[in-house]
Design a protein that fits this description.
231 residues, disordered N terminus
């Protein structure tokens, strides 16, 4: 019997782990009578005096948020679409709903320093290597017999000679692995200068089709306020 209970609990584990909290703010002079809920769950919450609210156990990729008020003619429904932060601004005839998706979580191969394309672009450089060196300056001195200070370069998992001519526009993210990382020792003499691993847009887009969609967007939902509603 105990084994059956344990297996049942493990079966439920993925659903619990994947659930997230959706937080946000409702902006309106009349927010006191507004209620929000996840359609699948049904538990209602109300914005506090500053308009802040929080909804737990949301499946952000599939759940629908419901906004209700005695002033609205009908409840308002909209899908979360992977968003964890929602700001709702009530206007005279519509709700301006700004939804923010969580930051991209780029995978690490060697527990190095992950630098996104957006971070590299802020350096003002146009080429990948120049941007990486500007963002994460090298700390290594020459360690090989011929005085080579170059780290190992990988592009989409393959060892390459150079990335200095690779345009930054083709990059999704970069992982910089310092020479002190134990993984570098297994890479031979040049591994002692560290590693720079580049993941291209092409590869990352293939594995994550929606990666370049806007991380923040606003939708406008028409509403009809009921005449003579209690405020």
């Amino acid at each position: 019997m105990m084994k059956k209970i344990l297996l049942f609990g493990l079966a439920l584990l993925p659903a619990v782990v994947s659930a997230e909290t959706v937080s946000g703010q409702y902006i309106s002079k009349e927010k006191s009578d507004v209620s929000l809920s996840i359609k699948r769950i049904g538990k209602v919450v109300h914005p506090n005096k500053k308009g802040a609210f929080s909804l737990r156990n949301a499946e952000i990729d599939t759940d629908t948020l419901v906004v209700e008020s005695a002033r609205f003619n009908v409840p308002i429904f909209f899908p979360l679409k992977g968003t964890t932060i929602v700001v709702i601004n009530e206007q005279a005839d519509q709700l301006d709903v700004t939804q923010k998706m969580p930051p991209l979580d780029f995978p690490s191969s060697y527990n190095g320093i992950i630098v996104s394309k957006a971070d590299l672009e802020r350096t003002g450089e146009r080429m990948t290597l120049a941007a990486v060196n500007s963002k994460v300056p090298r700390q290594n001195s020459a360690t090989t017999f011929n005085g080579n200070t170059e780290p190992l370069y990988f592009l989409d998992g393959l060892l390459v000679n150079d990335i200095s001519t690779m345009p930054l526009s083709e990059v999704a993210y970069v992982e910089v692995v310092r020479a002190s990382n134990p993984e570098c020792a297994a890479m031979g003499a040049r591994g002692a200068n560290g590693m720079i691993l580049v993941t291209s847009e092409t590869k990352y887009h293939t594995e994550n089709p929606n990666w370049d969609e806007p991380r923040e967007f606003t939708i406008h939902i028409p509403i009809k306020v009921t005449d003579g509603a209690t405020k």
